[in-house]
């Protein structure tokens, strides 16, 4: 299965394609074979050893780590995981740098566009974005490498495809498609006319909303200008009209009550808890009466120290320092504090672990997958 071609998707030479394929295969080997093996090493060897020494099992994440961290298997698999992560961005990034001027030219907004793009050069980039290269992705989603830049968007588009070894689908949109499909089947009478996707990235989670509700006006906002420019060009090329703007999800320039549905996918696990709370308050302001908020945070709730340890490799090794905060946040309380009625809170239960099914692989890294969480404004 190849990635769907569109106007701003980077091209590969033969050698670049081979190197990218290798990165995806290494990621798959780490995710589906090496890392799940640490559970076996822990259960068979390291946990019993810890219990013999302490007369009790490990009580918290720190002690689980302490029990296993001297294991050669654990250290070696960590090393492979981290190297695969760095190698992925280096490999895809080198290919994009070679063709960046052409990509910037192709991404320039055109008069015949059906959607739109707005960039805010004065937008303050929050410290948690500016000081952490999320996923070890050089420059994160916001760094400008020149005028009209699209590097970060291109890097994420091509990088995620290989990161997930194709498991996000040819348009990297399986999470968004699944989320919109779930909402439609769970709330068939809910027909949003204006939809906002916060932290939209290159639009993988945004276009599926327009496809699910063709009559709706769909907006996507993201903190990163290069990501937003790329998202616009990608959406236009794929023929899906969406309105993109560079904005901070905690404080947007939309009027009160502008939307019927405010959604986000894989955003909140990258944010500090105090800003997630501000984002929920902003969501409350943006929704009209009867409007719905729906999020896929990308991190399941904490479920005991061992499960938390084995499902937070990224947190410790690939620059996702804030996901532990989301896992331990009481989302029902956070929505209620933002103004939503306590009895309107709902959850979907675990959703499909999407990308782990990539490239035909079925063996899972273990652990629960995240589900959807939402609420309604009355
Ligand atoms: C992991 S990506 C997810 C992208 C997309 N929603 C998806 O599912 O593929 C997280 C995105 O959130 C954006 N982001 C982080 N903090 C933000 C904020 N405060 N306001 C708007 N966007 C933000 C990042 O720039 C990044 O593009």
Strand sequence of the main sheet, in spatial order? 1-4-3-2-5-6-8-7
Bound chemical compounds: S-adenosylmethionine
Q: Terminal Cα separation, in Å?
A: 44 Å
The proportion of residues forming helix, as a percent range, comes to: 40-55%
Low-confidence stretches: 359-367
Using DSSP, what is the number of strands? Answer: 8
Mean pLDDT: 94
* Name of the CATH first level: Alpha Beta
CATH superfamily: Vaccinia Virus protein VP39
CATH topology: Rossmann fold
Tally of individual helices: 13
Q: Characterize the overall form.
A: globular
Strand content: 5-15%
Domain Methyltransferase: 195-291
GO molecular function: methyltransferase activity
Organism: Sphingomonas chungangi
InterPro entries: Methyltransf_25, SAM-dependent_MTases_sf
Q: What would you say this structure looks like, in words?
A:
The protein has 378 residues and is an alpha/beta fold. It has one domain: 3-Layer(aba) Sandwich (Rossmann fold). Helices cover 45% and strands 12% of the residues. The chain contains 13 helices and 8 strands. An 8-stranded mixed β-sheet has the order 1-4-3-2-5-6-8-7, with helices on both faces. Helix 5 crosses helix 8. The longest helix has 41 residues. About 2% of the residues have low confidence. S-adenosylmethionine (SAM) binds next to strand 3. The site of S-adenosylmethionine has 23 residues, from strand 3.
